[in-house]
Amino acid sequence: MRQRDPLIITAAICGAETMKDHNPAVPYTARELAREAELCRAEGASVIHLHVRRPDGSPTQDRRTFGEAIDAIRQAAPDIIIQTSTGGAVGMTVQERTQPLDLKPEFCTLTTGTCNFGDEVFENTFPMIREIAARAVANGVRMEIEAFDAGFVDNALRLHREGVIPAPLHFDFVLGVPGAMTGTEDRLDFMRSIIPADSTWMVAGVGRFELPLASAAIARGGHVRVGLEDNSYISRGVLAKGSWELVREVRKMAEQAGVTLATPAEARRILSINPA
Predict the structure, then answer these.
(1) pLDDT tens by residue, 234-253
(2) Distances from the Cα of 22 to the Cαs of 57, 180, 228, 233, in angstroms?
C-alpha cells in the first residue's frame, strides 16, 4: 500500500432519525452523548458528528441543547473534534439548522444539494446552502461537504468557484440513502473521480453499506464515518451495542490493512481545522 495519511474515523453517534426503538443504545441526553463519545474515542475515533435530541428523542437544533452536549463531550473526551450538523432534520428551516454555529464549533457539515430521503425530501436550495455556508464562515467554522449524489459535488465546486465554500475542500460521500445514490463500490469510485485531486474525502455508508464501504475507503486511502446515525447493526440481524462497536470494527479493518489511526491532533492537520 502506498503511503497515506492516518485514517480519520468519524463517529456519527445519534443522528436525527434513529430512535431507541430502533436500537436502545442510541443516545439522547448530553450525558449519554458524552459517554458514547468517550467510548468512541477510546476505540480510535477522532471526530464526533453531533446531532442533539429532546428528552423524548425528537430532533432539535436548539443552540442551548447543543451547548450542553458539547460541554459534556469536552469533559468526557477533551481532545476529540466535535462536528455539528447543519442538516438537522427534514423540514427544519435554515434558521433552525444553523443555531449550533453560534457556538463556534471547530467543524460542521454542509449538504450541497436536495434529494429524496426515504419518503421525504431533504431540501437544500442554493440560497439555503449559501446562507448556511456564510454563517459557518462568519463563525470561523471549517466545513465538510456532504454529498449524497454526484450533483452535490458539482454544486459544491460551483460554490467554491464563487468563493462561498473556502479551500481546501473536504467531502463526505453519504451513500446508500433511499432516494439518493446507492452504496456500492463503483459509486464510491465515481464520486472519488469527480473531486479535485487535492481534496480530502471520507465515506458514510448507510445501513448495510456502512461496513463494506468503510473497508473500501481504507483500501483507497480515504477516511471513514460509522455510527448509529447511519446503521443500527454490527452484523446481519445483530444490533450494535453502540457506535463505539462500529468504530471498533473499523479499527480492526485498519489494523489488518496496516493503516494507523489519526489522533485528533493529526485529524486537525489533515482536515485543516484550527484547534478550538
Answers:
(1) 999 999 999 999 999 999 99
(2) 12, 22, 10, 10
Domains of the chain: 9-271 (3.20.20.70)
**Amino acid letter, 210:** E
Residue pLDDT, tens place only, 151-208: 999 999 999 999 999 999 999 999 999 999 999 999 999 999 999 999 999 999 999 9
Contact call for residues 9 and 261 (beta carbons, < 8 A) = yes
Grid coordinates standing for 200? 480530502
**Residue 121 β-bridge partners:** 116
What b-and-e string marks burial along 212-233, b requiring 16 or more CB atoms within 10 Å of the CB? ebbbbbbeebbbbbbbbbbbbb
Cell 477522532, residue located:
46
**Rounded CA separation 140/143 (Å):** 9
Nearest-CA neighbor of 243 among 43, 70, 7, 89? 43
DSSP 3-state of 81: strand
Rounded to two decimals, the pTM is 0.97
